[in-house]
Amino acid sequence: xxxxxxxxxxxxxTNPAILISALILLGCLFFLTHCATLxxxxxxxxxxxxxxxxxxxxxxxxxxxSPKMSQAVMDRLKKQAGPTDILARHVALIESISxxxxxxxxxxxLLIDGPATYAAMFKxxxxxxDHINLETFxxxxxxxxxxxxxxxxxxxxxxxxxxxxxxxxxxLHTPAAFFQRLNxxxxxxxxxxPINPAKARENWLLTNRDHRKILIVDGAVAFTGGVNIxxxxxxxxxxxxHHEKNINEAWRDTxxxxxxxxxxxxxxxxLDTWARQKxxxxxxxxxxxxxxxxxxxxxxxxxxxxxxxxRVTYIMYVSVFMYAENFVxxxxxxxxxxxxxxxxxxxxxxxxxxxxxxxxxxxxxLTVLYAGRSHYTHLLKSGIKLYEHRNAMVHAKTAVIxxxxxxxxxxxxxxxxxxRNNEVNAIILGSDFANEMEAMFEKDIAESNQIHLEQWKKxxxxxxxxxxLARLLQYWL
Length: 477
Fold this sequence. Notes:
Elements: H1 16-32, H2 41-45, H3 48-51, E1 58-60, E2 63-64, H4 67-81, H5 86-98, E3 102-112, H6 113-126, E4 131-136, H7 143-157, E5 161-167, H8 176-184, E6 188-192, E7 209-210, E8 214-217, E9 221-225, E10 251-252, E11 254-259, H9 263-276, E12 297-304, H10 312-323, E13 327-331, H11 339-350, E14 354-360, H12 366-373, H13 376-381, E15 385-389, E16 393-394, E17 398-401, E18 405-409, H14 415-420, E19 421-429, H15 431-446, E20 448-451, H16 453-457, H17 461-472
Parallel strand pairs: 1-3, 4-5, 5-6, 7-19, 10-16, 13-14, 14-15
Antiparallel strand pairs: 1-2, 3-11, 3-12, 4-8, 8-9, 9-11, 12-19, 13-17, 15-20, 17-18, 18-19
Helix pairs in contact: 5-10, 10-11, 12-17
């Protein structure tokens, strides 16, 4: 769920009064925000020729690998990948922009939907011995939220320090008493960028939000992806498991559990956000414990922050689309691409890359749904294959490229995520995990309807008008 100002934009009917009210709203937003811009990719690509000449920096359980060892790791990946330039070009670019290294020796576990994600989270929390750091966009006061709160309070009472960052807007409907109970129990709960300007700490901008979903336990295990703490994730979207609910109540999402040295990169992001938000001094704990090898997965943790010159998750997506040689398989719930993203995707399709995108057929964000659909004709004409999921609300933000590059995270394919949010994505390199991602993608394809160009052209005029109106608002979506 992506609660934002776009929820305030009325459902777009073909009624001028609706458009006028929406424009008035955006006029109000203009005075409360600033007009950010995305980086120009042409300028970013100029860095490639120098960056690709050296092997990437790779961190292992015992520190940085030598250039020779790093090159050996990349050579093994190239053998898995086959003919693709992703590893030589994209990896070097993202490392140079983000400053985040590739980290070897991890075990990455794919978690499909809320029930599997929550079960793994609860197990990790119950086993916590030292600390729990949780950063989330939404933390709702419902049955699931109270289960989390009760367990966190229990662990705090056992001497495990719990630190929480929650977004002020994402938790707008969560009563203040809910978080006060956590604070009274000893949990350090920090409200990110309070929507009340009287509580502002510095550089207050209403639209800057913390959309990350990060859970770190004892500095040794981390979780990230699209799942918030909310009851909407309490049922599975898998076929045969959601019939007890209306399909509008079944949410399709993806998360990962990461064990190993890459957890330290998530910890850095959490502690940096706490410091930038001027949170109270954290109790002394082993936030940077020695970490051992847990598996063979190579992971890069990519975080973007409002105000950064380089929006790293945006560059991650556009560059990987540009350098794909075999296939791009993308799933995203809020798909309102900018010109550079569209160009990268359509150019890929035109050079023979198999580009498939799974999008929601039902959505909690109708304005976003129509804005995304306004791009369908152009994308379909370029050869991109589009699918709309028919049995659940798609909320997963994932991609698998060329059978060796995968990502799971919080980043939506819209300007709100790319420009205004704290976001985080895990990049996993390797064919074994990519094969798991592909299997998941194929199952989602089977639950989706393909959009065909000739059929799409015949949609009603009223639908086309809604798309046109929504396109006018896409900068704020």
